[in-house]
Structures
1.
Amino acid sequence: MVRQRRRASILIELTVAIGLLAVVFTGFAVSQATDVAMLKSQYVRAVAMEIVDGEFEALLAGEWQAFGEGVHAYPVRADAARNLPGGTFTLTVKGKRVRLEWIPERLRQGGRVVREADAP
């Protein structure tokens, strides 16, 4: 009888321990998935910033004059644009005010990247 109670208590302890491990590992898995999504979003934002910064330099050097007033789809020459998810590069010219931005198609893809300045 004593042996059966011991076995039963060991089984209960084992079940509780396995349950606790399952809860802990589930928490780690969710945390890992969240971290991966956040890091991917930061990577996309960094790539978009590099492209926008480089293209904006060229625009301020005088390329903006090839575009008329208004909003234009801006063609990007950077090979790194292949690493970006769907989105659009938009150039807005108002007088001498030049604005270049990357707008992702969906949320959680790095967010908008905007550069704006008065052309010299």
2.
Amino acid sequence: MAQPPVEDIAVSRDWASARLFSAIVNSSDDAIVGESLDGMITSWNPAAEGMYGYAAAEIIGRPAAVLCALCGEGEGQETLARIGRGEHVPHYETYRRRKDGTDFPASVTVSPIRDEAGRLIGASTITRDVTEQVHARTAAEVVHRADDLRRANGSLESFTYSVSHDLRAPLRAMSGFSTALLEEYGDVLGEDGRGYAGRIVVASEHMAALIDNLLRLSRLSRTEMQLDPVDLGAEAAQIAAELQDEDPGRRTRFTIQRPVQVQADRALMRMVLHNLLGNAWKFTSGRDDALIEFGTAAADDAPVCYYVRDNGAGFDPAYTHKLFSPFQRLHPASEFPGTGIGLAIVRLIVERHGGRVWAEGAVGAGAAFYFTLAEEKST
């Protein structure tokens, strides 16, 4: 039986290889896209159609740049430049864009295509959708950060116990012995000595108050919130009555909007109002026509914002950024006593409710403190 010519055997082998290669490309789960050296799409396998949403007939001949997300507009040009130098571009992660405009994370490999003579004629891009892998990595990072947070909270609890136990005892001793000196040896100490002992008592009490507020601040970040309907106006009115009862001789006018219904943790929101109204009460102490207001106003980033406003001492707006940090005081303690922690507590509580807090004011012209709550937590 006659054998086919060698040329026919070679053609048959080339045809079989081409069919095998085409079958591999068409059955691949990865998108395999051919591009010309000027960045036009020349071939498109079925996986590319499924991944990007374009049929081959509507995408072949179009620029490959349409597949790049906005964050990678220059990516295609850089890749083609590397291919033009004959380089292979190993897999890298980027974002690709589907026909419907949505982006997805992708792992991409680009290889040069050469003809039989070795001339560079284009590039082949293999793209794999790595959405699941990215989600898995994100979930692992969340778990890792949660573990770090648990460890940090454990350290914070240990620190809290140390502060509560180890610092309170010497402070009580300082205050107690200083008080005993004043009571039992006041005559011996003389006027200067009594003054020094009195300062020790005041300083130790101030330090104890600082510790109490620090502990309160640390506990607030871990306290579980109980969301219930709360009338902030009613809470503000009750706090105003308490302030007036403490100093009935003061002439202060309160203007309080009611009702102001929100969905929030009652105890925490009462702490917010107590700090804000207490500050307004303190900083209007030098005025005979003191006015303190609580109400609501329009907000840019929330359906409504809540405010406490006064016509008291105010503050220099250049230092507004310091107001909500612990121990950042804008007035001397000798003029307006306090620990400098109240507004930090306000910020923490408001942020835990999904809102934000800010302030406006001017020296001698009063101050206004605003806060929002998350939309789903206010009504």
3.
Amino acid sequence: MTVKHPVVAITGSSGAGTSSVTRTMQHIFRREEIVPALVEGDSFHRYDRAEMKTAMAEAEAQGNSHFCHFTPEANLLPELEKLFRGYGESGAGLIRKYLHNDEEAAPYGQEPGTFTPWEAVPDSTDLLFYEGLHGAVVTDTVDIARHADLLVGVVPIINLEWIQKAYRDRSERGYSTEAVMDTILRRMPDYVNFVCPQFSRTHVNFQRVPTVDTSNPFIARFIPSADESFVVIRFRDPTGIDFPYLLTMLHDSFMSRPNIIVVPGGKMELAMQLIFTPMILRLMEQRRRAG
């Protein structure tokens, strides 16, 4: 297999914990002196913040109460597929940023909730790194998953995902519990149809499972901590994974199936380092040979 311009994609919904994987990957990139082209999934939304509110209101008026950021029509999926394919072939493509807040927007002299202009991927990057909602999406018109060389899913069990989202939206965005519930219900059809199927296409999945009661996620006052969780790590193809080494390095871990290792939640980032470092170095070696 020759991979001249590797594409690595982390996929998971809002509040799933994809930032933990991204943080780990960035540590690996710095340590191994790898230069990534960073792509946020939000930058491939079709609408900026104000436009999205308008589009949602228009959809609601037409009887569609489920229009949301999970919906293919709310995203530039053909453009994202073109980026993955084009970068894989030539190391080139067009990217932009979505400016979430005042701090991100200030250097560009723009309002928060807007996009920066499209620009070319910087020269001399070693790989493309994507974090977002649609890194492994397949629809009738696009197949983004087939252009990624490493696909990682981040999938907490559903009640924990809702707790994480509710906590973030209430504490950081000032949303009410009712508003959070409305958002979850709005997204549910597209979560089932477009987000969940991606986790059957990923090479590795990380699913955090709390060991405390999360029966009613909408009354939870705290997110279960890492030490109150286990992480179920599933490999689509366990060939070449050194499970004895992982079991030795990750204290209190165990195998639940031939392709699944379960580790204490507090060891999740260490597990990611142990698992992803050789995978990334393998891609870099394939890149070197292809070049």
4.
Amino acid sequence: MSNATLTIAPPGTWSLDPVHSRVDFEVSYLAGRFKGEFHEIGAELAVEGERASLEGSARVASVDVRDENLSAHLQSPDFFDAERHPELRFAAEQIRLDGDGRLSVAGELTIKGVTKPVAVTGTVSAPIADPYGNERIGLSLSTTIDRREFGLDWNNPLPSGEPSLANEVTILAELQFVRPGAETSE
């Protein structure tokens, strides 16, 4: 029961620092790993007593894979369908601290209008005071999903008949959260 009393951060509402945060994905494609990033992200962490909840989103139109044509393809109905589903969403009502800063998060991920439960793991940094009078923590989170469960079925077969794009996608989030400290300096 000792782990049940651990909290991930002091109580309060923590806001995402989007400049020092990122949400990436990676998937096996052709002969290696293919990576991308969502530039426009938002999140809020609420800590109340021993409970912590997290809500976050990423704007599909902000996907960046370093190629304009491919970014456009990812926004098309073949993949995220940005016009009909402009955001990816994540929500977790319970974040469990397993000790040594390790987190277990049972949440729900919504992609392309489909919501599925996901198990997310990661770490949390100890709270620090930043140079601007705020408290700050960092969450490093990851999960692996089967993209087909969210309606992302597109593929391009190789000459061998094998698919060129894997179905397992890893989502990685490096998030810094901030809340005003006891003394505000601005």
